[in-house]
Amino acid sequence: MRIDALTLHEIHIRLKSSFETSFGQIWERRILLVEACSDGLCGWGEVTAGEGPFYNPETTDTSWSIFSGFVAPLAIGKNIEGPGDLPTLLAPIRGHEMTKAALENALWDIESQRRGTPLASLLGGTAREIACGVSLGIQTNPEALLSIIERELDAGYQRIKIKIKPGKDLAPVQRLRQDFPRIKLMVDANSAYTLEDWPLLKQLEGFYLMMIEQPLGWDDLYSHVELQKRLDTPICLDECIHTEEQARAAVELGACKIINLKLGRVGGYTVASRIHDFCLQRGVPVWCGGMLESGIGRAHNIALSTLPNFTLPGDVTASKRYWAEDLIDPEVTVSPQGTIRVPAGPGIGFEPRRELIEKLTVRKERLV
């Protein structure tokens, strides 16, 4: 595989409703799309970095700079055996996993097209449909949260995740569990608490949660080890895990019992597959988290979620939950049973809508 040319597209796309976490509230996404060309084929990837350095250090602007200034010069014109060699090619660049992942994922799209096989199958995925849950932002009041949950359950989603932060934790969870005693429920703190808050987090155990996701510092494995010792409810790590080594350390040290596996956060399919395989061997379930992706990023999440250790419903949802129009055809839909059927065609299984992408593009650069 020779990487002939790369094109960066920055698009601005508005959410159908605002999404609030402990980081703040967002209405519009600035998304970088990577279009890679090799031997007459084009593949697409998505940089999942946020607009600000709140989830992790990467942002839309830093990703543009790193990609055009460092990733592209290392990759363009190079011959590699396949997409799995890209992490070695880009190893001189420390960090910036989301930026590098977008290129690797685009190359897997190309490789899948070249072989004429679905991307999921090329990765070793076996599922023909994946189970879906939803992630709900912090709401202004319990009634608004309950109304949204009723709608999502009616749509078939199998698991509900709600964002929490200090002051908006125990009360909404208690009310939710009171009204929906049997649903699969989890909470996500996005690093909003410290170890000193463990008595409050312990109280959450009374509401029969599947897991508590990333309660403590985004790079603090030690405190999560101490917290997991005090909790029966599994801790799920997200922000703490952006390399294979960190995943191994988290499991070996007992910092978590579940891992949220995001393609962008760990640098692409190659590392994600290694983490998946390690967790499978150790009996640690994984699930696929979301980053408010467009349909291109969502298509890659669907392919990843077909691997055998993705045993819990992920945050991979229908296009219409977030966007009035998505960037792919057909759009992602969810069945009444809360599942997404895995595309059977080669590549990501969806066709990028080039006209819409161009319409939404505010910045573009072709790198050769």
Keywords:
single chain, 368 residues, alpha/beta, seven-stranded parallel β-sheet, four-stranded antiparallel β-sheet, 13 helices, 35% helix
Describe this structure as you would to a colleague.
The protein is globular, with a radius of gyration of 20 Å. 35% of the residues lie in helices and 22% in strands. The protein is α/β, with parallel strands linked by helices and 368 residues long.
Task: Describe this structure in a few short sentences.
With 368 residues, the chain is of the alpha/beta class. The protein has 13 helices and 15 strands.
In spatial order, strands of the major sheet run 5-6-7-8-9-10-11
Order of helices and strands: EEEHHHHEEHEHEHEHEHEHHEHEEEHE
- Overall form: globular
Number of strands: 15
Share of residues in strands: 15-25%
Individual helix count: 13
State the secondary-structure class: alpha/beta
Radius of gyration: 20 Å
Taking the alpha carbons of the first and last residues, their distance comes to 16 Å
**Biggest beta sheet summary:** 7 strands, parallel
List the helices and strands and how they pair.
Layout: E1 5-21, E2 24-38, E3 41-47, H1 60-75, H2 86-89, H3 97-115, H4 119-123, E4 129-131, E5 133-136, H5 142-154, E6 159-163, H6 170-179, E7 184-188, H7 198-203, E8 212-213, H8 221-230, E9 235-237, H9 244-253, E10 258-261, H10 263-266, H11 269-282, E11 286-288, H12 295-304, E12 328-329, E13 339-341, E14 351-352, H13 354-360, E15 361-367
